[in-house]
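Thread: Modeling a multi-component assembly for a lab meeting

Hi all, long-time lurker, first post. My supervisor asked me to bring a structural picture of a complex we are working on to next week's group meeting, and I have zero experience with this. I have the sequence lines for every component (642 residues in total). Could someone generate the structure of the whole assembly? Inputs are pasted exactly as I received them:
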Amino acid sequence: MRRAVRPEVGALVAAAVIFVFFLAVAPAFRSADAFVTVLYQSSTIGIVAVAVGMLMIGGEFDLSAGVIVTSAGLVNSMFCWYFGINLWVGAILSLVFCLAVGFLNGYLVMRTGIPSFLITLGTFFVLQGANLGVTKLVTGSVSSTDVSRIDGYDSLGAIFASSFEIGSVVVWGTVVWWILFVAVASWILRRTRGGNWIYAVGGAADSARAVGVPVVRTKIGLFLAVSFLGWFVGMHNLYRFNTLQAGGGVGNEFLYIIAAVVGGTLLTGGFGNAAGVAIGAFIFGMTSLGIVYAGWDPNWFRAFLGVMLLLAVLVNLYVRKLATREARA
Amino acid sequence: MTRRVLAAGAAAILLLGACSGGGREEPEADAATGYTIAFITHETPGDTFWDKVRSGAQQAAADQKVDLKYSNDPDAGRQAVLIQQAVDSKVQGIATTLVTPDALAGSVKAATAAGIPVVGLNAGIDQYKRLGALMYFGSDETVAGTSLGERIAAAGAKHPLCVIHQTGSVALEARCAGVKSAVPGTENLQVNGADDAAVTSTLQAKLAQDKTIDYVVTLGAPIALDAIKAGGTAKLVTFDLNQETAQLIKDGKIEFAIDQQPYVQGYLAVTSLYLYLKNGNDIGGGRPVLTGPSFVDQSNIDTILPYTQKNTR
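Re: Modeling a multi-component assembly
Sure thing. I ran the full set together rather than chain by chain. Output:
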């Protein structure tokens, strides 16, 4: 049944239509440079969205995913600047911090039974406030200090924020990382026992528990994955832009969810795949920049995004009905 | 057990061996007594600009031994409540931004009715008198935009791109309108100021779409940094300053910045209330006191650069 109606089919058709559409209306869209810029934009949203999509397949939300990206960069930069320590130490500390937040999210959701929407909404506000408060305390300003003069900058920059040339176009490393993360997520979901567990806990947690699926471990693992990829993008932002504003990242949690939903992930869990989420992020990148390439007023972008989301939800609904009908037949 | 000892040892070596330059400098402490002054703004938390306004107000409070009650809310209705709260708690003076004059008028009138002097800052240059505020400190956004426009027009600008990083901000729209009044070919672009990567790629897309753009005008210092990452051949000018943009002006990567001196706005608002309470002074003599537009370019950057490093400019 899962093979009969693939979640990413609707998104793939939409992506193709939007791609052809912008090729037709925006001359500037027709260059290799434009394409890699779109890929870059998609990758910075898409990397976190992959994990958010998996988490949603597992039946949970993470509203703190947008600000944790900023928290990750801030922890790294401020710790190292304050103590005068190599950036590698801060990067590892930041990873530990992010994973701890992810674990806390997962643990609280599983332990209390409170919906993840509420738990992570709490985490979202705590992180947002702490980002501002701690940054002001440490640096005396609400933006982090420039990290480019601290040791370790070059090697970390090479990992998280490097770019390379193919012919005449400059491709950012995040695009490669994005493809890699999507491939790994896809492999986990389709080929491993963990993947089956994720579908099971999202579809019907109680039945899954009854047949011996470790529900708690699986869900906490998914929250950890979101934190890990949030950390990764946070590292990219820090090492590409050198300083971060403490108020950044707010609102991106919705973009991740939109990418996942547009990519065919069901909000109720149990259905979706990694390729679909990647296509969802690509659609986001294409529309956000396509409007600019076409020379239209980007004030309309959010309205466009909302329409896309509604359409995706309708397609999802249709797909689900189709799936249940086929299952009964 | 051995593994744990090894791990701890490794961590210690890593920490010791990893000490590097580029760290902080030691801060100083201060104290306050005297008048109580409420300082109320429409700051959106986390904006470097507002951080400087607040630093200025706090420095003035420290210098004048004033007890400063800072509060902020970007929502007009809630800002009005904050002003009302200050009136209720019987402060000796109120400094407030007047960004939404109609929403705040009631609270400001309540303050003046209660005999509490009010000064306006940052926004509300045309309305502060009508509301009953005594003095005003700030810059006129339209004047600032026009001065920027005139300067780049003189340098040959034909098609500048004005980058708005906050949806629906009246002040930012006014700046761009000012630029457009001096250079009719000005085009506005909306970007998501909360996401540096998105700002950069949106600008990249715009510059690729329209090769005739000769100037990029950013309306906040962090956005100027993103604009540099977007590349392109257009010249860059910006509103507001921070440490990094000041350095880039020195390096010639940014042509100039328009500074409305937020630190001064905060400092003067508090100091003017102090002088009014202590000495009956009326700064500006019934007219608004302009804190900008002040141009920062290669001719004066050497003086200003050290101040940006202290977060006072």
